[in-house]
Amino acid sequence: MRRHYLTRHAEEYAKYQGDEREARVAKLNTCLLGQQDFFKKANKESDAAVESSYVVSEMIAKAGKSFKEGEFIKNCMLQAASIVCPENKGRLSNISLSTNTVAERISELSSNIYDQLCEKGKRFHAYSVALDESTDVTATAQLAIYVHGVDDKFEVMEELLKVTPMHGHTTSQDIFRKLCDAIVDAGLPWKNFAGITTDGVPSMTGNINGLVARVQRKLEENGVEKAVALHCIIHQQALCSKCLKFDNVMSDVVKYINHIRSRGLKHRQLCAFLKEIESAYEDVIYFTEVRWLSRGNVLKRFIELRAEIKAFMEKDGGGCSCTK
């Protein structure tokens, strides 16, 4: 460094001595720090833009909206910034909310989370799986596989292992093949398989060709004791709700809800009435037999609005014996 200074800079800076030299060094140091801060500031702004993109994308996902809404939200933010704080509009324009960018980031995150899950799965002393097959809005069957494992330190972890679409048939053999693929891909050994939880459909619980029976035979081939087979707790609640006799309650509730919702004028009048009195809810809910959560949601909403419904029905002249 001394040789470099003497050959390159001594002629220019040798004339500075004492306090003048210290002031010159301080000035050069300030310029250097300013140049470094320029790059640090750019990195901070870039990191803030990426973090903002993740936060907005998470809010869109939680609201059940399409990621295509991201561009619309960004345009709204830019328009608002141009009025409120025009000096920061450029920083907001760096936030990327395009569908392709968000999809790529989600893919990277899901891949990273899956790798962490597989790494933890290697330390499982025992694990069990829970499966549920349902049809989405596009009429495609989706198989959700959850894993619940515990390691030697008794640390318990429960995560969604995989959601895989099932095109065509959804027989027990097809579900079993998907389950085997998920277990092999995650690196989970069959020798640590301890339990399986399913719903009560024949393709899952059949004694010969059901999924549970196929899994038990797979374990026997690997020299493992049979796993504990359980019925899903959530579906048990659904079965109980069907067995219990709620006809004396549900018949009146459904009658009055249908009386309101099936008539356009009365429905609009009820919504206007609830809005006028500033009720916590703006409408009643239809009862859907095939949805196991529907019964509880309908009853809860009806009970919370029973006073308002009674006042509306008495005002309308339709009577309200079921809300007493």
TrEMBL record:
Taxonomy, superkingdom: Eukaryota
Listed InterPro entries: RNaseH-like_sf
SUPFAM superfamilies to which the protein is assigned, alphabetical: Ribonuclease H-like (SSF53098)
Entries under PANTHER family matching the protein: EPM2A-INTERACTING PROTEIN 1, GENERAL TRANSCRIPTION FACTOR II-I REPEAT DOMAIN-CONTAINING PROTEIN 2-LIKE-RELATED
Name under which the protein is recorded: DUF4371 domain-containing protein
Organism: Sinanodonta woodiana (Chinese pond mussel)
